[in-house]
Amino acid sequence: MEFGIIGAGLAGLACAEQLVATGHSVRIFDKGRGPGGRMSTRRIDTPQGQASFDHGAQFCTARHAGFAAQIADWTRRGITAPWPDAGPDAHVGVPGMSALVADLAQRHDVHFCTLVKGLVRDPASGGWWMVIDGDRLGPFDAVIVATPAEQAAPLLSLHAFPMAREAASVTSDACWTMMLAFDAPLDLPWTVHRATDADAAIAWAARNSAKPGRADPRSGAPDCWVVQAGAAWSRQHLERDASDIADLLRDELTALAGKALPEPLVATAHRWRFARPASRSAMALWEGSLRLGACGDWLSEPTVEGAWASGQALASTILARAKAA
How many beta carbons lie within 10 A of that of residue 81, not counting itself? Predict the structure, then answer.
């Protein structure tokens, strides 16, 4: 079968891995400019060289055997490395979190900068067409929607209302993220700060430069920090300008540090509207009569492992039902 997958995040790519391994053909389409999504790595030029920030997912853990094996393979090939500062089982991508997605993407036929606006099904043949900039691309024997729930719902709604209802019922917390770079290592007593108060303005703050494979600020590279606001704070300030958010979060970081901070080389903010979904327990959705499916962390758990597991679960479901038929 020829599958069309919408979304080149970890869920869509994990699904593609298993489908291709069993002889199917896959084409993947993503509206982004490159691999990453919420695992993106932002790079910004400064007078002291390039500053690098994992401004979405900060690290990943592996609680299940399948993803643990994937992490072990990535680590063996230098694509991930342990990061003890975040916990004994924390791993990060090298040289950025986007390396995980990039490794899978380079093995598949992925089309970036391609926004799929709709799906059309031929009732006679059962084939699927994707609506892209007014044109139709296809046909595909089956389509998989591997996007955040808020983007999946409208794509599914005209064809599989129960699946669309599942997606529409998911709510996601937003997250404002601030990226800071300094010309010398910041003098703080911690590398990672996690808030224990759910209502705290800053939920996470970490020296990105301390992760394995990053440029060392002790050698003159920028000292890079990532600060992520709490869900309530992000919701309260959701529609503020990014420049305002950077100023507000700098004030919050100063208060957390308990002392004045030096003037940064870089101070910018990014808004993740769909950062952390309140996930379901279905793992994946598949309507065999339509050959239409959905996967993503909104169907499992809002983690890197959750996205990967959902994609794998969908592929396993498709293959098992095809075998049974």
Answer: 16
Instruction: Tell me, yes or no, if the pTM score tops 0.85.
Output: yes
Q: Is the omega angle on the peptide bond into residue 154 within 30 degrees of 0, that is, cis?
A: no
CATH class of 42-98+172-277: alpha beta
**pLDDT tens readout for residues 162-173:** 999 999 999 899
Write down the CATH number for the domain with range 2-31+114-169+279-324. 3.50.50.60
CB of 113 closer than 8 Å to CB of 32: yes
DSSP code per residue over 6-39: E--SHHHHHHHHHHHHTT-EEEEE-SSSSS-GGG
**Other Cβ atoms closer than 10 A to 189:** 7
Domain boundaries, the chain: 2-31+114-169+279-324, 42-98+172-277
